[in-house]
């Protein structure tokens, strides 16, 4: 399976299933507790967003979660982590099965995160950007007491503006560098990536979070790229002007979030590395997975408290992950927990 575009610039296929699960059910899928299943992969930064937001909002009882393994082939993500290689709720071996149940001739990407309608076994949506927004805005009835406002109405315009630049130059920018097929396309993506990271460093030098004084959707979206930077993007995708650990403001900001309940406790570094280095064989033909980097620094003091801010605003931190959803200690930066 090839990822690099030999003609030059990598262009992400953004044809997602735009159906939404809403409080009023206007697309035919009303918010209901227990009806839907979030299918995610801890390896994937786009899915990691949904895992974090679900945790922060306390939606575990309302929206169950299936976790795919870290690798996949050209057909789709698989449930090889589960007994018998089948998702225990959906009863399927591959996420592809849920897409084909709704669209027998589906010809677009089988991507995570995806939300599946459990009674029918049909995928509802894989529109990753809208999924997390809807978890904040449409699923309010099922938020835990003390859930934070991740997409507050008064800040939405600012959050959307920050998210647009972060997606274009950082979230997707690392892929544009890594999957570029020409020197020119690679260097263009590389320059845009680090120009944006420099801009974000300046923005965050005097403020704890990207928008306002609490964690928002914007922080979730930037974090999932930063946490993968040294483990994957710096080497595998040739984003090597600096490591994250060599960018003081962003490194401290990322550690601050990592040490915040709901962020670092969702990160599986083994899955992350296995996915990129084993799946992208046109970049890494032998599938050799690096032994490093050293993860101990993620738990070192970050000093960002001095900037003030209240991580959860008037809310409270989420409780620890449920036993079935904990990242194995050997896969984490917290081996002693």
Sum this structure up briefly:
The record marks 233, 276 as: Lowers pKa of active site Cys. Pfam families: GST_C_2, GST_N_2. By secondary structure, this protein is mainly alpha-helical.
Write the layout of secondary structure elements.
Elements: E1 36-40, H1 45-57, E2 64-67, H2 96-102, E3 114-117, E4 122-125, H3 128-137, H4 156-171, H5 173-178, H6 183-205, H7 217-226, H8 229-233, H9 248-258, H10 269-279
Parallel strand pairs: 1-2
Antiparallel strand pairs: 1-3, 3-4
Helix pairs in contact: 1-3, 1-7, 4-6, 4-7, 6-9
Active site: 44, 175
Site (Lowers pKa of active site Cys): 233, 276
Binding site for glutathione: 77
Structure description:
This protein has a domain of 166 residues: Glutathione S-transferase Yfyf (Class Pi), Chain A, domain 2, CATH 1.20.1050. The protein contains ten helices and four strands; from the N terminus they run βαβαββαααααααα. Helix 1 links the parallel strand 1 and strand 2. The longest helix has 23 residues. The protein is globular, with a radius of gyration of 19 Å. It starts with 35 loop residues before the first strand and ends in a 58-residue tail after the last helix.
